[in-house]
Amino acid sequence: MDCTIIPETQHQMFEYLKSINCCLSCCTRFIGTESSEYFRNLMSDSKLLNDTLKDANASDNVPCIVCLGILQHDIQQQTLKQIIDSVNSSGFDSPTFTCNLSIPASLNLRERYIYISLTQKFNLSKDQLCYLKLRTQNIKEVWKMQMLSAVEAGILKQQISGAIPSLFSIDITYDHANDQEDCQKFTESYIKNVESKNSKHRNNIYSRNNIEKLLNNIEDDEFMKYFSLSSGHVTIGKISCFHRGIFIGGRYKKLSRHLSQTPWYINGEKKMETSVQDLLCNHIVKYTNSDTLKFLSSGREDVDVRTINRGRPFAVELINPKVTIITAEKLAEIVNEINASTKLVEITSGLKFLCSGDLQKLKEGENIKTKCYRALCILRHKSKDDINLEQLSNMKNIKIIQKTPIRVLHRRPLTPRTRLLREMRARWLTIEEIKTARELFSESRIDHNLLNHLFVFDIKTQAGTYVKEFVHGDFGRTRPNLSDILGAEVDIVALDVTAVNIEWP
Asked: Where's the Pus10-like C-terminal domain (predicted)?
């Protein structure tokens, strides 16, 4: 069966829609017009439109019973002005944008009413109605056809749509004073068995999703029994601008043994004056005028552990940044500002913009990367002459099992973990190093004889290894451990992360 609608019937449908106070755009939509040019210029050369739009100005002054004015000139001009004012005063420098439209839920009911009315008045077949619905442009798409060129000209940005939208979005919300009342009246009339005084439950009943589900299940005659059109118009509820997060990353050195990686709070009280995150990110957040940030890194060091040499990979997600066009020269300037502002941390690489693939690399690195450490260890209760440090150099790919360390047991599950130690080596302190240590501790009460029992321990290991616990054994919770291997009690004095082996940035 032929599902098309002949031009004469389309002409009659258009006249009928005008007569019940549909706007020109909705009249054009509901006769199945698909061409965007028709909606941009309703006075086009189309014979159908030329014949029917002679009194266009008069018919478009009354609020439309379907779109409630969203596709009409007056509301669109008000919307355009507010969009331009909002964007131009917001400070966002993005060269592109995407528009998102939120419209009243009751418009779905009004469109269903129009389809039923057209079917009944013009005796449309089921196939013709289905074909008409497929060709009918939705309100949001027509609004974009009509408005986006003017928005582009007004804010001097390019509109981007499709699978990869712009990171900068302009969200427009249209409200209708009787929207909930219209939906409520319809649903209460139809769903008589749903009666609840629970406001939360009632709000769920009148949600957009439930209205759409109900429309899919209700027959036409039932719908017309419970719904009637009312007049009204929309108002511009809210126009807001938002830029999705951007990521900037690099590597940092942590040069203090009294610095947490992120702000440290206990019971709402900040325990340390600053943190790695604060020192690295405050300058970046300030320059980009971001609302806030999320700090990401390839692992984390304890407060008393330094990260040296090339440093640790990190990334910062900037939430709703206003400034996103940043040159390489400016990024280098920001690095210099950060490094000049503190002696506690240092950015060792240039900063660069990151993509999702970079972030995935940072995440995957948690499982596949290796890390190198240097520890200053002390031998207890045994002479160094009885200890063979050289044997460690011959030990490769040693598997150890670590139970969750006692020091983190309060925040992590009790789970044994197998870790692979790639290689290790150790040496006693040199005479010069011992001399320097004596000078350093000259005014302290430390037993200087203990300095002869200090040794340097280097290890390359799988990420996630608790190195402190491997050294002293954590009361037997790590096996084997360095104390087991050397046959003597060993403790750790200081620890440095010397390498995080991941390609970054």
From this structure: 247-500
- Rounded to whole angstroms, the Cα distance separating 283 from 437 reads 37
Q: Which two tokens stand for residue 485?
A: 């291997």
pLDDT digits (tens, 9 = 90+) for 265-292: 888 888 889 999 999 999 999 999 999 9
Residues 25 and 57 in one domain: yes
Residue 198 has pLDDT above 60, yes or no: no
226 and 251 co-located in one domain: no
Catalytically active residues, by annotation: 302
First-residue to last-residue Cα distance in the chain: 62
For the chain, how many structural domains are there in total? 3
Name residue 268's amino acid.
G
Asked if residue 41 has pLDDT above 80, the reply is no
Domain boundary among 242, 258, 288: 242
Alpha carbon of residue 203 to chain centroid? 28
Q: Which long-range contacts (CB under 8 A, 24 or more apart) does 25-30 make?
A: 25/64, 25/67, 25/71, 25/72, 25/142, 25/146, 26/64, 26/66, 26/67, 26/71, 26/114, 27/52, 29/136, 29/137, 29/139, 29/142, 30/66, 30/114, 30/115, 30/118, 30/132, 30/136
Look at residue 1 and tell me if it is in a domain.
no
Tokens 């549909």, located at residue: 22
Three-state DSSP class for residue 44? coil
- Chain centroid to Cα 401, Å, comes to 37
Q: Cα–Cα distance between 436 and 442 in angstroms, integer?
A: 10
| Statement to judge: residues 179 and 140 lie in one domain | yes
Name which of 151, 136, 121, 6 is nearest 66 in CA terms.
136
Give the domain-ending residue among 220, 242, 264: 242
Structure tokens at 11: 């002409």
User: Does residue 2 belong to any structural domain of this protein?
Assistant: no
pLDDT (tens digit, 9 = 90+) per residue, 113-138? 999 999 999 999 999 999 999 999 99
Answer yes or no: are the C-beta atoms of 505 and 494 closer than 8 Å: no
Question: What pLDDT is attached to residue 42?
Answer: 60
Domain residue limits at 294 = 245-367
Based on the domain organization, do 223 and 110 belong to the same domain?
yes
Which CATH number fits the domain that encloses residue 397? 3.30.70.3190
Q: Is 44 exposed, middle or buried (0-12, 13-18, 19+ CB in 10 A)?
A: middle
| Cβ 34 vs Cβ 28: under 8 Å | no
